[in-house]
Amino acid sequence: MRPSARLHAELTAIIDRAYEAADQADGSVIRTLLGDLTGTGLDQRTAAFLGQAHRLALDTTAALTSVLDTHRFGSCCSECGTSDPCRTIRGISEIFIPISGAP
Ligand SMILES: [Zn+2]
Predict the structure, then answer these.
(1) Which residues, 6 or more positions from 44, have their beta carbon under 8 angstroms from its beta carbon?
(2) Residue 14 belongs to what domain range?
(3) pLDDT for the residue numbered 37
(4) Tell me, what's the pLDDT at 99?
(5) How far apart are CA 20 and CA 73, in angstroms?
(6) How far is the CA of 23 from the centre of ligand 1 (A)?
(7) Residue 64, exposed/middle/buried by CB under 10 A (0-12, 13-18, 19+)?
(8) Residues 6+ apart with CB under 8 A from 97
(9) Which of 4, 12, 42, 56 is the 20 to 30 Å CA partner of 96?
(10) What percent of the chain lies above the pLDDT cut of 90?
(11) What mean pLDDT comes out for the span 59-71?
(12) Taking a C-beta distance cutoff of 8 angstroms, is the pair 18, 61 a contact?
């Protein structure tokens, strides 16, 4: 597999795992636990973020999957036509590769 195709496959696997993790999380349990934090000093902005985090994780990973599908790699990027990783794939990899611990 070409390095660019391998990078694309690696990113796709990372995003797929993130989506699966979010999809398997129980939103009702998250809401219950968030409710249990009432009165513990949790500020409203943090509570609001936590209340949306599950949905945001699902939506963000689905959107990234769409971007990766648009920039899929055969002999070149299907969207940009570059033979090296395109700017979009490089940008996404700069964010996710260090987090995953992948080389
Ligand atoms: Zn591209």
Answers:
(1) none
(2) 3-100
(3) 84
(4) 59
(5) 23
(6) 27
(7) buried
(8) 10, 11, 14, 103
(9) 42
(10) 74
(11) 97
(12) yes
Does residue 31 have a pLDDT over 70?
yes
Sign of CA dihedral 33, 14, 95, 69: negative
- The structural domain count of the chain equals 1
pTM of the full predicted structure? 0.84
If you measure from the C-alpha of residue 29 to the centroid of ligand 1, how many angstroms do you get, rounded to a whole number?
38
Distance CA 41, CA 103 (A): 40
Spacing, Cα 84 to ligand 1 middle (Å): 9
Give residue 13 CA to ligand 1 midpoint distance, Å: 17
Spacing, Cα 28 to ligand 1 middle (Å): 38
- Please check whether residue 79 is in contact with residue 86, taking contact to mean a CB–CB distance below 8 angstroms: yes
* 3-class secondary structure, 72: coil
Ligand 1 midpoint to CA 79 (Å): 5
CA 1 / ligand 1 centre spacing (Å): 17
pLDDT of residue 100: 55
